[in-house]
Protein backbone atom coordinates (compact mmCIF):
# COMPACT_ATOMS: atom_id res chain seq x y z
CA UNK A 1 0.00 0.00 0.00
CA UNK A 2 1.38 3.39 -0.99
CA UNK A 3 1.38 6.00 1.74
CA UNK A 4 1.66 9.73 1.23
CA UNK A 5 2.71 12.26 3.79
CA UNK A 6 0.38 15.13 4.64
CA UNK A 7 0.51 17.92 7.17
CA UNK A 8 -2.38 18.36 9.57
CA UNK A 9 -2.80 21.07 12.16
CA UNK A 10 -4.72 20.05 15.26
CA UNK A 11 -5.60 21.83 18.48
CA UNK A 12 -3.17 21.15 21.32
CA UNK A 13 -5.96 19.57 23.37
CA UNK A 14 -6.53 16.96 20.64
CA UNK A 15 -2.80 16.25 20.35
CA UNK A 16 -2.57 15.85 24.11
CA UNK A 17 -5.40 13.31 23.97
CA UNK A 18 -3.73 11.47 21.11
CA UNK A 19 -0.47 11.39 23.05
CA UNK A 20 -2.36 9.98 26.04
CA UNK A 21 -3.71 7.16 23.86
CA UNK A 22 -0.14 6.39 22.84
CA UNK A 23 1.10 6.58 26.44
CA UNK A 24 -1.48 4.05 27.67
CA UNK A 25 -0.67 1.70 24.78
CA UNK A 26 -3.80 2.06 22.66
CA UNK A 27 -1.72 3.13 19.65
CA UNK A 28 1.96 3.14 18.81
CA UNK A 29 2.17 6.57 17.15
CA UNK A 30 0.29 9.72 16.24
CA UNK A 31 0.20 8.50 12.64
CA UNK A 32 -1.50 5.29 13.70
CA UNK A 33 -4.16 7.26 15.60
CA UNK A 34 -4.81 9.54 12.63
CA UNK A 35 -4.93 6.62 10.16
CA UNK A 36 -7.41 4.82 12.42
CA UNK A 37 -9.59 7.94 12.79
CA UNK A 38 -9.61 8.64 9.05
CA UNK A 39 -10.40 5.01 8.24
CA UNK A 40 -13.39 5.10 10.60
CA UNK A 41 -14.55 8.43 9.18
CA UNK A 42 -14.33 7.26 5.56
CA UNK A 43 -16.18 4.04 6.39
CA UNK A 44 -18.93 5.96 8.21
CA UNK A 45 -19.27 8.55 5.43
CA UNK A 46 -19.37 5.89 2.73
CA UNK A 47 -22.14 4.14 4.61
CA UNK A 48 -24.08 7.39 4.96
CA UNK A 49 -23.69 8.15 1.24
CA UNK A 50 -24.89 4.67 0.30
CA UNK A 51 -27.86 5.01 2.64
CA UNK A 52 -28.79 8.37 1.11
CA UNK A 53 -28.46 6.94 -2.39
CA UNK A 54 -30.78 4.07 -1.44
CA UNK A 55 -33.33 6.51 -0.03
CA UNK A 56 -33.21 8.57 -3.23
CA UNK A 57 -33.69 5.41 -5.26
CA UNK A 58 -36.75 4.48 -3.18
CA UNK A 59 -38.25 7.95 -3.61
CA UNK A 60 -37.69 7.76 -7.37
CA UNK A 61 -39.38 4.33 -7.49
CA UNK A 62 -42.36 5.63 -5.53
CA UNK A 63 -42.61 8.61 -7.86
CA UNK A 64 -42.60 6.32 -10.92
CA UNK A 65 -45.26 4.10 -9.35
CA UNK A 66 -47.40 7.13 -8.56
CA UNK A 67 -47.07 8.37 -12.15
CA UNK A 68 -48.11 4.94 -13.45
CA UNK A 69 -51.33 4.88 -11.40
CA UNK A 70 -52.14 8.56 -11.73
CA UNK A 71 -54.34 8.12 -14.84
CA UNK A 72 -56.51 5.66 -12.89
CA UNK A 73 -56.84 8.06 -9.97
CA UNK A 74 -58.46 10.72 -12.18
CA UNK A 75 -61.31 8.45 -13.30
Description:
This protein has one domain. It is mainly alpha-helical and 75 residues long. The chain has helices at residues 12-23, 30-73. It is 75% helix and 0% strand. It is built from two helices and no strands. The model has no long low-confidence stretch (mean pLDDT 91).
Question: How does the SSE layout of this entry go?
Answer:
Blueprint: H1 12-23, H2 30-73
Structural descriptors:
75 residues, 2 helices
Major sheet: none
Query: How many domains is the backbone divided into?
Result: 1
**Which percent bin holds the helix content?**
over 70%
Strand content: under 5%
How confident overall, as mean pLDDT? 91
Number of helices, counting only DSSP H or I runs of 4 residues or more: 2
Order of helices and strands: HH
Unreliable stretches, pLDDT < 50, 5 or more residues? none
Q: Give the strand tally.
A: 0
Q: N-to-C terminal Cα separation, in Å?
A: 63 Å
Structural category is mainly alpha
- The whole-angstrom Rg is 23 Å
Shape: rod-shaped
Amino acid sequence: MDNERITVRLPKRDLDTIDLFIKVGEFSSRSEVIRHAIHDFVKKQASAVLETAEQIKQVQQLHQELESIEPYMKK
